[in-house]
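Here is a protein:
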Amino acid sequence: AAQPDGHFAGGILAAGGIRRFIVTHSAGGVLTLSRAVPGLLTGAAITLYPGCDHTRATCAAKFANLDNFGGFPWIPTRNPFDGGSLF
């Protein structure tokens, strides 16, 4: 709950040798996982890894790792081969 909403979305929850994808992270530290962690008890130790939205801004601000950014931020969103006018 100490992190802002969305901080762990797209990240990983690890508990007892099991890892699960974090689908959402919302108010109050509520996490939605891709599937349940069998046998996870209240108060059990877990490790949370923050998620990434695959943007240059997040890579720089959240992870201070822009040198290793592997995304493709300049791919056009409009397909130039769809038969429409480019202008």
In short: Helices lie at 56-61. The radius of gyration is 18 Å. The mean pLDDT is 90. DSSP finds one helix and four strands in the chain.
